[in-house]
Each structure stands twice: as structure tokens, then as C-alpha cells.
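In keeping with the milestone schedule agreed at the kick-off meeting, the structural modelling team has produced records for the first pair of proteins. Each record is given below as a sequence line and a C-alpha cell line. The laboratory manager (R.T.) confirmed that both were archived under the project's standard naming scheme.
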Amino acid sequence: FWETTTDFTTWSVSEVTDKAKQEEVKAEAKRKQEEVKWNKPCKTQECLKIVDEYLSNQPRQGNSLLRTYGPGSLDGGDCGELCEMTEPCPTDPLIPGCRYDTYDNSIAAIYLTKRGLVEEAKTILHSLAELLYPKSLDGIDAKLQHVGPSGKTVTLLAAAYSDVSKAKAGNYESDGIYDGAVDTGNNAWVALAFAHFA
């Protein structure tokens, strides 16, 4: 109420408490709405089909690996500009082409295998196998060659490939390579992808 003698607005304790409770109730209701919105369990295969479709629409490079970043990513939701999460392609102004990660392709192969999408998983695994087993050892440093139990020579995979040109096994510096680092984790995920498929 307005205090005429002091010329100030005075609030009673009950008014302030009531307003605070009303705001608290509104905030709780909004939080619950958001929770319901995001915590909808997939009772059917509907949610997984979204992932299936996304993977099937990803561009592929010369070795048939799935693209990791770039146009066509799903963004971050319906929150306007703040959710613009599309990664440009190419991602690095100094490196031509788009990125096709070994790790991401391994995880995609595992997912597709578990979903029973065997042909799709096989396409990725075939690509990875081509990049593991060189057709020729010419020009490949002996330190990079590993003879497996089958007697075939294996070269480990680079971290990421490019779509500028088709990559070759055992070559870590070419237009087909986006990131030529040979990492333990990436190659371990490839092994897991083959193990899940077997």
C-alpha cells in the first residue's frame, strides 16, 4: 500500500510472501513441463529410427566413411540461435575437405550392428579394413607395418580422413588424410567394432 505520510510504497509481509510463493509455484510448474518435454522414454523404435535416418543421410567420402561434422547436423533443439551447433565444413581453414573420424565411424558401426542393420555396418567395416590392410607395401615405412596372426600386413588407422581424395592404408600424409595421428583409442574402437560385428 502507499504510505502517504512517508511517500513510500510499503509492502506487508504477507503480500511479499504470497508473491514469492506464486513465483516459486510458477517456476516449479515450468520446470516440470520442461522435464516432461525432455524425459519422454522411447517406448517404440521411434527414437532409434531418428538415429538410423541421420546416419543413413550422412555424406560419405571416397573410402565410404561417414562424415563427422558439417552441414546436415541436427543442431541443438528448438531454442533459436543459441542452439546453432552446426559445425562448418571444412572445419579448419588450413585443412581442405571435411572430417571423417575413425572413432565416429567405429561407434556408428557398433550401433548399426546392434540395430541389426548389418549391411550398413558392413559398409563402414569394409572401409576400415581397406585402410588397415595395404594393397602394396611400397613406400610404407617398415616401422608402420605390423604382421598379424593371419600373416597379412596391417597398418594402423589415422585419426581422421578427408573427402578431398581417397585415402590409402599406411599413408598418413595425403589429401585423403584430415588428421594423420595414429591414436591408441581410435584403433581400439575399430577393433571393438569388428568384435561386435563378428
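The second protein of the pair:
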Amino acid sequence: GGSLTGRQRGHFQPVKMAGAYVMPENFQHILRVMNTNLKGRDKIMYSMTAIRGVGRRYSNLCCKMAEIDLSKRAGELTEDEVKRLVTVIQNPEQFKIPRWFLNRQKDAKDGKWSQAVSNILDNKLREDMERLKKIRSHRGIRHYWGVRVRGQHTKTTGRNRGRMQVGAMKR
């Protein structure tokens, strides 16, 4: 391919005019959203993927539902836009985001469909592990032992995952 300009490469260079940089007055280089620091230089859709439980597709959908311009940088958002975005992320079903899009479908405890995000996601995963161990399921026991869970072969692979090496000892 040919040579790319800075903007095509994804670098954000402020426009230089008469020796001064023109940047929005309220530009934030780091935003704090849902216990996560977001880079203000990135486009909002890609910046949001730093939040655990939010991928590119979910991020794109949330931006559209919150009516936020996808060409904006994360640092250019107003407080009102950030609040709208957080509301959409936390209550996806109110904004007509389809159920199949959510990452927590038919929760084992309450049977609800939701999008687990940030520290709520960590809590849910820990609860799932504890539940699997408590009922002594095959998956729970293998998680407890720290070996492969999903039926992979373990005779020759994955030997250095926190255990001693098998074979010739290094001198």
C-alpha cells in the first residue's frame, strides 16, 4: 500500500493554525467511566472497549443508541453525553438492544438477561466459579486444580502453566 497520512494511521494530530494548536477547550486526555480510565485521544467507540465487558460491537451499538457521533474522540464528549452512554451500557434492554447481544444470558441465580460490565463482571465470574466448585461439577473441579477445562489434550501441552517442567532439567 501507499503511504498513509497521520489521520489514516489513527494518530490524532491537532490542527496547527498560525503557530497555535486548536483543540476543544474542554478536551480531556483521560476520562473516568465505570471505574475505568479511557484514553481521550481514541475514537469513542474504540476507547470504550477498555471497559471490561464492552467489546467493539457493543460499544458501537451503545454509541448509536445514545446518539453520539462515532467520529468524535472520547476526550471531546460532554458530561451529558457520557451520562447518556453509561445509562445505555447499564440498561441495554430499555434501549431496544436485542437480548442475543448481551453477555450474561439467563443468569444461573435469577434467570435474568443482562450485560455484565466492569467490576460486576468480575463478581459474576467469581460467583460462577464458586458455584461450580461447590456443586463439585467436572468444570469446577478442573478450575480448582488449575488444569484445562474445555476438553483439550493435556498429555504433552501446557506443561509450564505454574507447574514443574517435565523432561530434561536445565543445568
